[in-house]
Sequence to fold (1003 residues):
Amino acid sequence: MESLMDKCCSQCRHTPATPCRDYIVCRREGPFCHDDEVCKQKRREFLTRIMARPESGQQKVVVCGGLNCSSGGAFGLIDLFRAEVTRQKLGDKVQVVLSGCRGFCEQGPSVIIEPDRTFYRWVTAEDVPEIVALHLKENQVVERLLYQDPETGLLCRSCDDIPFYRRQMKVVLEHCGFINPEDIAEYVAVGGYRALTQALTGMSPEEVLAEIKKSGLRGRGGAGFPTGKKWESARRVPSNKRYVICNADEGDPGAFMDRAVLEGNPHSVLEGMLLCAYVIGSDEGYIYVRAEYPLAVRRLRIAIEQAERYGLLGENILNSGLNFRIHINEGAGAFVCGESTALMASIEGNRGVPRIKVPRSTEKGLFGKPTVLNNVETFANVPKIILKGGAWFATIGTERSKGTKIFALTGKVRNTGLVEVPMGITLRELIFDIGGGIKGGKRFKAVQIGGPSGGSLPEDMLDLQIDYESLTGAGAMMGSGSMVVMDEDNCMVNMARFFLNFTERESCGKCTPCREGTTRMLEILEKITTGKGSLSDIPLLEYLGGVVKTTSFCGLGTSAPNPVLTTLSYFRNEYLKHIQDKRCPAGECIALRQFMIIAEKCTGCGACRYVCPAHAVSGEKKKVHRIDPDACIRCGRCFEICKYQAVKRR
Amino acid sequence: MAKEVTLMINGQEITVPAGTTVLEAARQADIYIPTLCYDPELSLWGGCRLCIVEVRGWKNLPASCITPVRQGMVVETESPAVRHARRTLIELLLANHPEDCLACERTGACALQDLAYRYGIRQSSFTGKRRNHTIESGNPFIVRDMNKCILCGLCVRVCSEIVGRSAIDFANRGFFSKVAAPMDLPLERSECVFCGNCISVCPVGALTGKPMWGQGRRWEIKKVQTVCPYCGTGCSFNLNVKDDRVIGVTSNPDAPVNGRWLCIKGRFGFGFIHHRERIQMPLIRDPFLFSKVNWDQAIGLAARKLKEIKAKHGPDSIGVLASARCTNEENYLLNKFARAVIGTNNIDHCARL
Ligand SMILES: Cc1cc2nc3c(=O)[nH]c(=O)nc-3n(C[C@H](O)[C@H](O)[C@H](O)COP(=O)(O)O)c2cc1C
Ligand code: SF4
Ligand code: SF4
Ligand code: SF4
Fold:
């Protein structure tokens, strides 16, 4: 036995070709088919190692391998920890593993030591010997690497003490950042594939479907369509073939929820897809994942390969008669390919352009067969619902939006990262209690929810509840769950231009309003942000935005005007300032900025003259300097460098 | 029997079979809804959005060409919201379209021009960048001006669904979308067979027949329906006649055999009509020079010679080759002539290769 997943002895007959229905439960509680203390003992050893149970004396160093931490050097840390553990002769007591993202990106690279869940932040190569020598060997916490609660000043030893984590509710992300996503045994050790076992051995497809319906789960890909209803309609259509597709295209700028799930716990997605396959009677599935996520693709491949090796994908899974295979389809990174029909066209090898939705893809989808397409997070919720029951799930959230939702919190918020919260929590709780408020003591201005398809909500809407209906009602959108927080230094016109610039470039070009209309809207915004706008541009933007929104073919076009329309209604004044005063109040629109030196404050140090790339600053040493407005390229370097606040921006 | 559905369009109650689209239902009731990318003989696309309508209780304005009717649906085809949005869409198309109506080949038969006229649009509210593709006219048949293309995709669909060549498809995306042959190569280096069926569906001046360039305005042209002289299929089409000269061929949608679809010969092979070397009366060669004769003389000579040969060498010394340029009826008569008049079975047809 080299892994928890292997046979304990020759009496275990489970192979993919001769599957045993008890295989998964047997890993943790078995053996069932024979009574052998040695076999039991072997399993227990594997489990204690994986789980690092306190009484076992085993420890586990879990280095976060999410995007942020790995760009901060997490992969190097792994090798250093392994070398150091060997050097200090702890090899049989300590395991070092890489996990997926655990969300608190701001504090990365982070390391968690199990079993006590100690959270070390901003770990560098130099810290490794100390952590090994003190923590792993002497069981002493390295205090200087602990997170300090900025409110109370207290050091947080366990990650569960950190307000950022404490106020979250982790359902989908429960094991992300704590288990090794490249080892199926770790997923099984924490209860993975139990939901599948439970469904295959004790529930009919109808009963599984009933639990999903009872849970009230709605699609996490944006539109919030009831998942149970979708599965039911695909199931009802008579057909000899049905497909399950997982949408892992995640194209919103600023979104990385699905990536975190795929990189952190890929098996939970596979298990969700398996359960869907069981309900609708499918034997083939696809995961459409963007090629820009190489690590997610790699971990998915490993996960599929391991699931096949142990008979959890393939034929006659767990001797239930269920056959299911999963293919990975790498998308080329077009935002519109996340749209369900374009995605299917792309899998079929056609141009990734949205198709006519009549009949629905649950009737005629991929290759003309009934198809269920769900988002990564949607699938990852499913095993939990089957294990804990639909009724449990339905206790979380609001009347019409059940469960939790993962958000990618970015922008000017202090704790950037990934958070999972129950539906119904307010924006204020999310941004201020969990997100820690605005960086650098600045003032909150707006939050853009739902990525480029969403809208910007102002301060007086901070008490809005986060659920599908409230957000749509406010002109924003749940979208996939990206959340960009903006402070007083952000220009809302420029922000709208930024998102529209994205959708304009990503428009597939199929329909007139989106293809031509977004271009014209963008041109108007560019005029305004460069001081060439006129007052008539505002009604023009509004009515053109309205037409694009109401007449476009797919969701890309119908939502593309949202950032413009919401900022026009909540931040109209900023537009007017740009147009009438030719001024950008936040100072972000480069063409509208002006820099000048306040003579009384200038010491003549020459720092600005030195940094100006356009040689626009002149002046003798120790004498007042001057900026030539014609030569100035408005980059603002002088403004940033001046120690005496002598450079004024307007 | 198909289920029937009753809906209201512009206050008129209309009953159609379930599965009919709102557009079809309206057209059956003679209610006008404009379209640019819809063609009943091609698959549905739903891209131009001109056919938007207002449906009571719906948030957005759906495209009627891809919206199936529902029981009790209340539809307005020219409500203020629809007219406003439709005008905007036309303006958006015009904003990215060369102002070339004065010299455009399609003037007078252009769907975009007709829409601008109908909705009273003299000028687009939008200005800004435009496409700048070079006009492709390196082949003798088709001129492609992709600056005028409104990206309805009809040519793409006709080429794949009717012609079966798939020589062209959309390339690039968004504002820079363009219909192109693979690798954006010129048509003559693609799979294109120059049947010109794409020209027959193009609603604007993006695809035009090269032979007709500069030959006449649409309203100066008389259309004369005729049967194609090239093969026995019997396609018919319209000869475009100006000042008693045939200047081109256009499809005749009512052609009983072929509808609008033609091959390269029918559409472009009309140059012989006014060719100076065209033989317009029978010629007899004697012994080296051709001399013009009338039909009686020519037929008389042929009959005499055939009789002589038959008398001298027997009927089987004569062979008859029928032509694909004859009609079925003519070929039938030739068959009779060979077997019954000459008395030989030596008859064959050039199309039997
Ligand atoms: C332009 C566009 C992009 C989309 N991108 C994604 C995406 O990246 N991931 C995703 O899950 N859904 C995306 N969607 C939503 C999908 O079309 C679809 O509704 C969703 O994947 C269904 O799954 P769900 O019911 O689990 O939410 C996109 C939709 C549009 C219109
Ligand atoms: S709205 Fe139209 S042009 Fe835009 S992405 Fe969708 S189908 Fe393509
Ligand atoms: S001429 Fe015929 S083959 Fe060529 S692109 Fe047009 S439809 Fe296709
Ligand atoms: S060339 Fe003509 S038929 Fe083809 S897409 Fe453009 S406008 Fe439509």
